[in-house]
Amino acid sequence: MSDTTWQLMLDSLWPMLSGAIMGTIPLALASFAIGLVLALVLALMRLSRRRWLSSIARVYISIVRGTPLLVQLFVIFYGLPPLGIVIDPWPSAILAFSINVGGYAAEVIRAAILSVPKGQWEAAYMIGMSHQRSLTRIILPQAARVSVPPLSNTFISLVKDTSLASLILVTELFRVAQEIAAFSREFMALYLEAALIYWVICLVLSSGQSVLEKRLDRYVAH
Amino acid sequence: MSPTDSSAAAPAPALLTVRGLQKSFGSNQVLKSVDLTVARGQVLALIGPSGSGKTTVLRCLNGLEIADGGTIEIVGAEDATHAPVVIDFAPAHGKRAGVPKKALGTLRDRSAMVFQHYNLFPHKTVLENVMEGPVVVQRRPRAEVEAEALQLLDRVGLGDKRDSYPFELSGGQQQRVGIVRALALRPTLLLFDEPTSALDPELVGDVLRLIKELAGEGWTMVIVTHELEFAREVATEVAFVDGGTIVEHGDPKELLRNPQHERTRQFLHRLLFPF
């Protein structure tokens, strides 16, 4: 690669990093937080003995997992305005990603709750706890530990999926890379640079996952 | 257990009375009709082959299984505020009757169970395991509960393990915590579900000794066990359960030496001469 290419990559580093800091990371964090709350509600609905509740959750999860994220994003951003619902790029992106995370994480949380041995429910009932209190004080803390690795997976996927938001005009890491590439014609260099930054973010997240797993280790029945 | 047993002395008041208890899982009728009575301070041992229904009886007594028919009557502590409560499991109008939550709650409040696999809460320390019920459910003052919990833990030789997590303990230690957790709930009836069957043989003694001590202090207990020696020594009454009914019951020494029913004889024979 020529010196000018290196110089371009160096000059693009800060704009791309700020795209990550101002776009990618907050987008991922906000969507993940909202998505997790949604996922917990959906997981509990799925586990509910009330048929209609679990059916609603089942259909939701099926649609979210059965359709491309890009399509979901476009339905919200381009599909809703003709119906009189206009949502700005940022909220559209957060909405789409939250809905998506909600569907995927719901199954993770459901499985984690089911993985807690039945004896834990029984011990909680035995000491006089109600169903709800057993869930919040005894079952969920144990399910939380079990769900850290798969939820980390979901989060890492989400960080990379936020690049799709570039297609609805959100200025994040990948959109910055695209803009610089478009006028400089240095596609390979800039897209590799973008890939590298995504990779570094995910490396940091992976090490965060190990720390969290160690801290929560005692929550698992050995 | 039966009215005739107490003919010699003045009849001890029944703490627990079970009549016609029935329970099915799907088409499998696990309990056909179980009657039993346990007086205050008595220790009833339930023995019988696996699948006989003895554990189901115990689980019905703690409300972990909801019986399909019959009644359970349980008396509270020896003061006026704890009147006997009768829970009727009879199905109303052919449909599965909703057993009143409050009655079921009373059943759970008055009995406490020690599980075969301990079922301690792995994310809580030993002390937290013991205090969870009294503080969070019964809303008793934390300081008072903690003092009592520590005293109980000291008593079973685990005072220094108060801040340990269950996975750091041996099976025998975990089971002793399980017993302390049950005692801390201040139940009127203690239920033991094969408390030593998950333990390594060398750890069984400590747990049985503790249960024997509790029996000596006048705790009322129902114990499902395979330890016939233990039943003989600690129980005031043994009931042999098979096919969802109590086949026979009586004085432990008498019943174990001289069983009246063929099925009891066969069961005891198999336990004594396994091969």
TrEMBL record, chain B:
SMART domains: AAA. It is found in: Cell membrane. It comes from the Bacteria. It is a peripheral membrane protein. InterPro entries: AAA+_ATPase, ABC_ATPase_HisP-typ, ABC_transporter-like_ATP-bd, ABC_transporter-like_CS, MetN_ABC_transporter-like, P-loop_NTPase. GO terms for cellular component: plasma membrane. This is Glutamine ABC transporter ATP-binding protein. Pfam families: ABC_tran. It comes from Cryobacterium arcticum. Keywords: ATP-binding, Cell membrane, Membrane, Nucleotide-binding, Transport. The keyword Membrane applies. One of its GO terms (molecular function) is ATP hydrolysis activity. Residues 16-268 form the ABC transporter domain. CDD domains: ABC_HisP_GlnQ (cd03262).
